[in-house]
Amino acid sequence: MTAQAARFSTPHADAPADAPPDARAGSPMLTLDGVGKTFGAGNGTGTVALTDVDLTVSPGELVTVVGPSGCGKSTLLRLAAGLDRPTAGTLTTRTDAISYVFQDPTLLEWRTALGNVELAGHLTGVPRAQRRREALAALELVGLAGSEDRYPRELSGGMRMRVSLARALVREPELALFDEPFGALDEITRLTMQTELLRLFTTASFAAVFITHSVSEAAYLSTRVLVMSGRPGRIVADVPVPWGRHRPPELRYEPEFAALTGEISAALGAHA
Ligand code: ADP
Ligand code: MG
Questions:
Q1: Residues 39 and 86 in one domain
Q2: How much distance in Å is there from the Cα of 127 to the middle of ligand 2?
Q3: Ligand found nearest the CA of 76
Q4: Rounded Cα gap, residues 193 and 144, in angstroms
Q5: How far apart are CA 253 and CA 224, in angstroms?
Q6: Which of 13-22, 167-176, 180-189, 197-206 has the lowest mean pLDDT?
Q7: Any idea what DSSP says for residue 155?
């Protein structure tokens, strides 16, 4: 490893020294074993969306999934969230504390930023004072302190996505699922949100599966990159990312970064 790469290299599963010991830390958050999904299987002419997917996501991992359009990435995430069921194989999650972030922030236009973040607590019966306190803390975490009372139409695209992230993190998920959340943002906002997500990932403790079209986003954010083939989707490469969680934006201009994105792109190209 070169001196440049070494600058960014701390072990990536590094828990803070004062982190409480978790007796179950080693057991995976999410396990897929031979998972397949065929839509409309009943009439024999179904669409095979996923085939033979093996995957484990452990605490402390931020696993990104890249693959061509229509290869089953959203299907994989919906299965992980329990929104749909596999037609083959087994899928287990260790926790019910799962959050889901969509490409569209899907905010309620008639509720303020605070009202949107409070909604989940409201629906699950969290007492008013507590859910307000938690929502304010989540908004502060995503850099929106001071914008609590603004309505979605008064927020930029990046700010709307921050509200969406606050809403996903407010209930302290153990597993967070992201379906191309930054795909609709302009390039500069997108890079800022990547830095923000890394910061959130370091501050809060959740394992994550993050879907993206962007090879550089995958390399910059994750501890491991999975490459999927064209439909029917299966995992064709599992590329470890060697850097620690502290990743300055300039990492993107290092030769090691280019080498890694090259490796991911080659795997994508070979199986498109
Ligand atoms: P990606 O997110 O990678 O673009 P999807 O997971 O959305 O891909 O879709 C994978 C394939 O499954 C596509 O061919 C899509 O048309 C099909 N598909 C997805 N959801 C359904 C559904 N509910 N019913 C039938 N086909 C579906
Ligand atoms: Mg999709």
A1: yes
A2: 35
A3: 1
A4: 13
A5: 19
A6: 13-22
A7: S
Please name the residue whose Cα sits nearest to atom 14 of ligand 1.
70
- The string of DSSP codes covering 204-268 is S--EEEEEES-HHHHHHH-SEEEEEPSSSB-EEEEEE----S---GGGGGSHHHHHHHHHHHHHH
Whether 147 and 165 share a structural domain: yes
Does residue 89 share a domain with residue 62? Answer: yes
- Structural domain total, the chain: 2
Minimum CA distance residue for ligand 1 atom 20: 75
Position 14 pLDDT exceeds 70: no
Pairing state of beta strands 207-212 and 175-179? parallel
Q: Does position 56 have pLDDT exceeding 90, yes or no? A: yes
pTM of the model: 0.87
C-alpha of residue 196 to centroid of ligand 1, in Å: 30
Nearest CA to ligand 1 atom 12: 49
* Tokens (6 digits) for 152: 């979605």
Instruction: Note the Cα 189 to chain centre separation in Å.
Output: 17
Distance between CA atoms of residues 85 and 77, nearest Å: 11
How does the average pLDDT of the chain come out, rounded?
Answer: 87
Residue 3 lies in a domain: no
Domain that holds residue 161: 109-172
> Ligand 1: residues within 6 Å at CB?
39, 47, 49, 67, 69-75, 231
Q: Going by CA atoms, what residue is nearest to atom 10 of ligand 1?
A: 72
Atom of ligand 1 nearest to the CA of 180: 2
Whether residue 142 has pLDDT greater than 90: no
Question: Which residue has its alpha carbon closest to ligand 1 atom 17?
Answer: 49
Testing ligand 1's pocket by substitution, the residue of 38, 39, 210 carrying the most ligand atoms inside 8 A of its CB is 39
